[in-house]
Amino acid sequence: MSIVKINALTVPTEQREVLERRFASRAGAVESSDGFEWFELLRPVEGTDQYLVYTRWRSEEDFQAWMEGPMKAAHQGGGGEGGPAGAERPKPAASASTVWSFEVVQQAAPKKA
After folding, report:
1. CA separation (Å) from 29 to 55, 67, 74, 106, 109?
2. What is d(CA 86, CA 79) in angstroms, rounded to the nearest whole number?
């Protein structure tokens, strides 16, 4: 079965809009990555300042290939937010990040009538 990676990002209130804008304008390379199955950016509603970045992958190997290829290239590129290559990278919107890993052992979908 699939694996799930959840990146818990601590985001100060004044940086929420910046984080969401950056995710909205991301290159989209993850969607065409081999083994990619799902993505969600989850905004906290109450009780926490952590956003959750949820991705599901066919295998750990597929996730690692994305991490070492497209993700690494996107995060090492220039400028960000449409800036030119070689431009200074913008300040991170998150003040902390923790990645959690899970194996999917059970799953369910809505029953079809």
Report:
1. 13, 11, 9, 28, 27
2. 6
Whether residue 64 has pLDDT greater than 80 = yes
Phi, psi angles (nearest 5°) of residue 59: -155, 165
Distance between CA atoms of residues 104 and 29, nearest Å: 23
What's the pLDDT score for residue 73?
77
What is the structure's pLDDT at 106? 95
Contacts of 88 (CB under 8 A, 6+ apart): 79
Residue 88: its pLDDT value, please?
66
Q: State how far the Cα of 92 lies from the Cα of 90, in Å rounded to an integer.
A: 6
- Predicted confidence at residue 103, as pLDDT, reads 97
Angle 75-3-62 (CA atoms, 0-180°, nearest 5)? 50
Distances (CA, A) of 56 to 48, 84, 113: 23, 31, 27
- What's 55-70 look like in SS3? EEECCHHHHHHHHHHH
Helices and strands counted in the chain (H then E): 3, 4
